[in-house]
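Task card 7
Instruction: Convert sequence to C-alpha coordinates.
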Amino acid sequence: MKIQSVTHNNRKRAFQVKASKKMFQLPYSKVDPQPSADDSITRVFVDKELGREGFTFVLESGKEGTVHSEQVLEYNQDPHFLRDALLYKLTIESQKRVEKTALSKREIIRRLGTSATQFYRLLDQTNYHKSINQLLSLLHVLDCDIDLLVRTKAARVKAA
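Output:
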Protein backbone atom coordinates (compact mmCIF):
# COMPACT_ATOMS: atom_id res chain seq x y z
CA MET A 1 0.00 0.00 0.00
CA LYS A 2 1.43 3.34 -1.06
CA ILE A 3 1.06 6.08 1.54
CA GLN A 4 -0.06 9.41 0.14
CA SER A 5 0.37 11.53 3.27
CA VAL A 6 0.95 11.28 7.00
CA THR A 7 0.39 13.73 9.84
CA HIS A 8 0.47 13.49 13.60
CA ASN A 9 -2.27 14.54 15.99
CA ASN A 10 -1.04 15.13 19.54
CA ARG A 11 -4.57 15.55 20.88
CA LYS A 12 -5.54 12.04 19.72
CA ARG A 13 -1.96 10.80 20.30
CA ALA A 14 -2.04 9.14 16.89
CA PHE A 15 -0.66 9.33 13.38
CA GLN A 16 -3.15 9.92 10.59
CA VAL A 17 -2.19 8.04 7.44
CA LYS A 18 -3.87 8.61 4.09
CA ALA A 19 -3.60 5.79 1.57
CA SER A 20 -5.86 4.34 -1.12
CA LYS A 21 -8.44 7.09 -0.60
CA LYS A 22 -8.81 5.97 3.03
CA MET A 23 -7.69 7.57 6.26
CA PHE A 24 -6.17 5.30 8.89
CA GLN A 25 -5.05 6.06 12.44
CA LEU A 26 -2.16 4.51 14.30
CA PRO A 27 -1.78 5.34 18.01
CA TYR A 28 1.60 6.50 19.29
CA SER A 29 1.50 3.53 21.67
CA LYS A 30 1.97 1.17 18.68
CA VAL A 31 5.27 2.66 17.47
CA ASP A 32 8.84 2.56 18.69
CA PRO A 33 10.18 4.86 20.00
CA GLN A 34 6.99 6.20 21.51
CA PRO A 35 6.44 9.95 21.37
CA SER A 36 5.66 11.57 24.71
CA ALA A 37 5.02 15.01 26.17
CA ASP A 38 8.73 15.21 27.05
CA ASP A 39 9.89 13.87 23.68
CA SER A 40 7.40 15.02 21.06
CA ILE A 41 7.42 14.62 17.29
CA THR A 42 9.35 17.27 15.40
CA ARG A 43 8.98 15.81 11.93
CA VAL A 44 6.96 13.09 10.17
CA PHE A 45 7.17 12.22 6.48
CA VAL A 46 6.33 9.56 3.91
CA ASP A 47 9.59 7.68 3.42
CA LYS A 48 10.63 7.51 -0.24
CA GLU A 49 13.37 5.02 0.65
CA LEU A 50 10.60 2.57 1.56
CA GLY A 51 8.94 3.11 -1.80
CA ARG A 52 6.26 5.25 -0.11
CA GLU A 53 5.12 2.10 1.73
CA GLY A 54 5.98 3.52 5.13
CA PHE A 55 6.70 6.67 7.06
CA THR A 56 9.40 7.95 9.36
CA PHE A 57 9.09 10.23 12.35
CA VAL A 58 11.72 12.14 14.31
CA LEU A 59 11.45 13.03 18.00
CA GLU A 60 12.91 16.07 19.78
CA SER A 61 15.61 13.82 21.27
CA GLY A 62 16.74 12.92 17.75
CA LYS A 63 15.42 9.37 17.92
CA GLU A 64 13.80 8.13 14.73
CA GLY A 65 11.10 5.57 14.16
CA THR A 66 9.87 3.96 10.98
CA VAL A 67 6.43 2.44 10.42
CA HIS A 68 5.59 0.18 7.48
CA SER A 69 2.15 0.40 5.88
CA GLU A 70 1.44 -3.22 6.86
CA GLN A 71 1.59 -2.20 10.54
CA VAL A 72 -1.07 0.42 9.87
CA LEU A 73 -3.29 -2.04 7.97
CA GLU A 74 -2.89 -4.73 10.61
CA TYR A 75 -3.77 -2.36 13.45
CA ASN A 76 -6.85 -1.13 11.56
CA GLN A 77 -7.89 -4.70 10.63
CA ASP A 78 -8.18 -3.79 6.94
CA PRO A 79 -10.22 -6.55 5.20
CA HIS A 80 -7.92 -6.71 2.16
CA PHE A 81 -4.86 -7.02 4.37
CA LEU A 82 -6.51 -9.76 6.45
CA ARG A 83 -7.46 -11.67 3.28
CA ASP A 84 -3.90 -11.45 1.98
CA ALA A 85 -2.54 -12.61 5.35
CA LEU A 86 -4.87 -15.63 5.26
CA LEU A 87 -3.84 -16.41 1.67
CA TYR A 88 -0.19 -16.23 2.72
CA LYS A 89 -0.69 -18.62 5.67
CA LEU A 90 -2.64 -21.11 3.53
CA THR A 91 0.01 -20.94 0.80
CA ILE A 92 2.87 -21.62 3.22
CA GLU A 93 0.95 -24.55 4.70
CA SER A 94 0.25 -25.87 1.17
CA GLN A 95 3.96 -25.66 0.31
CA LYS A 96 4.84 -27.70 3.43
CA ARG A 97 2.17 -30.30 2.65
CA VAL A 98 3.25 -30.66 -1.00
CA GLU A 99 6.82 -31.34 0.14
CA LYS A 100 5.66 -34.03 2.62
CA THR A 101 3.07 -35.82 0.47
CA ALA A 102 3.72 -39.12 -1.28
CA LEU A 103 1.68 -37.89 -4.25
CA SER A 104 3.63 -36.71 -7.29
CA LYS A 105 3.11 -33.16 -8.46
CA ARG A 106 1.62 -34.52 -11.70
CA GLU A 107 -0.96 -36.45 -9.68
CA ILE A 108 -1.82 -33.40 -7.59
CA ILE A 109 -2.26 -31.36 -10.79
CA ARG A 110 -4.46 -34.07 -12.30
CA ARG A 111 -6.66 -34.26 -9.19
CA LEU A 112 -7.01 -30.48 -9.12
CA GLY A 113 -8.01 -30.50 -12.79
CA THR A 114 -5.67 -27.63 -13.53
CA SER A 115 -2.46 -26.88 -15.40
CA ALA A 116 1.07 -27.11 -14.05
CA THR A 117 1.38 -23.34 -14.42
CA GLN A 118 -1.71 -22.74 -12.29
CA PHE A 119 -0.48 -25.26 -9.70
CA TYR A 120 2.81 -23.39 -9.32
CA ARG A 121 0.94 -20.09 -9.07
CA LEU A 122 -1.02 -21.57 -6.15
CA LEU A 123 2.26 -22.38 -4.40
CA ASP A 124 3.68 -18.88 -5.00
CA GLN A 125 3.31 -16.93 -1.74
CA THR A 126 3.75 -13.62 -3.59
CA ASN A 127 0.72 -14.27 -5.81
CA TYR A 128 -2.35 -12.64 -4.26
CA HIS A 129 -4.58 -13.08 -7.33
CA LYS A 130 -5.52 -16.63 -6.39
CA SER A 131 -8.60 -17.47 -4.38
CA ILE A 132 -8.93 -19.04 -0.98
CA ASN A 133 -11.19 -21.61 -2.67
CA GLN A 134 -8.30 -22.76 -4.90
CA LEU A 135 -6.03 -23.24 -1.90
CA LEU A 136 -8.70 -25.13 -0.01
CA SER A 137 -9.09 -27.43 -3.02
CA LEU A 138 -5.34 -28.03 -3.06
CA LEU A 139 -5.29 -28.82 0.67
CA HIS A 140 -8.23 -31.20 0.17
CA VAL A 141 -6.30 -33.04 -2.56
CA LEU A 142 -3.42 -33.30 -0.07
CA ASP A 143 -5.78 -35.09 2.38
CA CYS A 144 -6.05 -32.21 4.83
CA ASP A 145 -9.05 -31.41 7.00
CA ILE A 146 -9.64 -27.69 7.25
CA ASP A 147 -11.62 -26.25 10.13
CA LEU A 148 -12.59 -22.62 10.40
CA LEU A 149 -12.55 -21.26 13.92
CA VAL A 150 -14.46 -18.08 14.69
CA ARG A 151 -14.15 -16.68 18.19
CA THR A 152 -14.54 -13.45 20.08
CA LYS A 153 -11.29 -11.59 20.44
CA ALA A 154 -9.77 -12.00 23.87
CA ALA A 155 -7.58 -9.35 25.42
CA ARG A 156 -4.03 -10.32 24.58
CA VAL A 157 -1.75 -10.53 27.57
CA LYS A 158 1.90 -9.70 26.96
CA ALA A 159 4.37 -12.27 28.24
CA ALA A 160 6.48 -10.88 31.02
